[in-house]
Amino acid sequence: MQTLLRVTNLSHSFGNHPVLSEVNLSLERGEVLGLLGPNGAGKTTCLRLMSGLLTPNYGQIEIQGINLAKHPLRAKRHLGYLPERPPLLPELRVDEYLRFCARLHRLPRRRITIAIDDAKQRCGLEDSGKRLISALSKGFRQRLGIAQAILHQPRLLILDEPTEGLDPVQMRALRGLIRELARDSGIILASHLLPEVQAVCDRVVILHQGRICFNDYLNDDKPIYGWRVQLGTGSTLLKLTALPCITGAVAIGEDRYRVLLEDGTDSAQLAQQIMNAGLHLRELIPERTDLERAFFDLIGVEEGR
Ligand SMILES: Nc1ncnc2c1ncn2[C@@H]1O[C@H](COP(=O)(O)OP(=O)(O)OP(=O)(O)O)[C@@H](O)[C@H]1O
Fold first, then answer.
1. Residue of 12, 43, 45 to mutate, ligand 1, most atoms within 8 A of C-beta
2. Strands (DSSP E) along 122-185, which ranges?
3. Which residue has a Cα nearest atom 28 of ligand 1?
4. N or C: which end of the chain has fewer CB within 10 A?
5. What pLDDT does 292 receive?
6. What's the CA-to-centroid distance between 40 and ligand 1, angstroms?
């Protein structure tokens, strides 16, 4: 495996407000890593540090083995970055903008047209070259943001909330694109949405109050850990724990519970028993990995909705 990014003991404060503390992580080629955390957890700061837009107070970042602080230009040649708001120029057309970005990336003149065509093709923008950026939909702007980030074929791609604000169809298309791009590179994407990260990432790091509190691979084969249940208003923990199939339950929010089932019981039986008890079942979600548990314990129910 080829390590594209290595972050060692990264810490950063704004004034006397610590935002990141002792962050350590690495990324291999072919991997999509999700940086998950609630608003204000430090995700954007972490990405800005990794992309060289901010200089850390402490710690070291290496891209393709190149120290970012010591050799910023060399290191950044391997990096593509999509910030939270794509840095687009609305008065330009798509081709004009990509040509401008290609020059910023210092692509040789003879390679510019090929690079633009390739980036447009990968991002589904083949027919959009003549369109004004101000007239593009949010999804197409996001694609263009990614196209500018991959023009110079970077090995490492950093995407800050790439599907934020997209409709489900656009979201799906963009997830497909991210998986496709990961074949040749490594990708770090930040999100505050658990399902988003589960849909596209191989590995998840949870950042909470500037510290990594979870770092593990996602794997659909892992056994179901427990169930998250949302009931209608007026439910009680007592009524739930009275159900014969439940061996344990805790309240994790208003009318929301985490339950463990008796061995050999399945979700259909749980749903049936909930309804037989006169409770209204609104949601039943498996907690398949430690990730869900860590996420909801640390970050709270509302963030994961
Ligand atoms: N330039 C800055 N100056 C001062 N404080 C900042 C600056 N940028 C971020 N912060 C603070 O650092 C903390 C982490 O912010 P950051 O944007 O990294 O979090 P985040 O996890 O990306 O949040 P979100 O999901 O809302 O984008 C917040 O308390 C924020 O107010």
1. 45
2. 156-160
3. 40
4. N
5. 67
6. 5
162's tokens? 């790439």
> In terms of CATH architecture, what is 226-287?
2-Layer Sandwich (3.30)
Q: Kindly list the domain boundaries of the chain, sorted by start residue.
A: 3-217, 226-287
pLDDT digits (tens, 9 = 90+) for 254-271: 899 988 888 888 888 999
Tell me the backbone φ, ψ of residue 43, rounded to 5 degrees: -65, -50
- Rounded average pLDDT over 215-235: 78
Q: For strands 256-261 and 281-287, give the pairing.
A: unpaired
Q: What is the pTM for the complete model shown?
A: 0.78
Per-residue pLDDT reduced to its tens digit, 206-220: 898 899 988 878 766
Cβ-Cβ contacts under 8 Å for 184 (sequence gap 6 or more)? 29, 153, 155
CATH among 3.40.50.300, 2.40.320.10, 3.40.50.1860, 2.60.40.10 for 3-217: 3.40.50.300
Does residue 76 carry a pLDDT above 90? Answer: yes
Identify the residues whose C-beta falls under 6 Å from ligand 1. Answer: 14, 19, 37, 39-45, 192
Q: Which atom of ligand 1 is nearest to the CA of 210?
A: 14
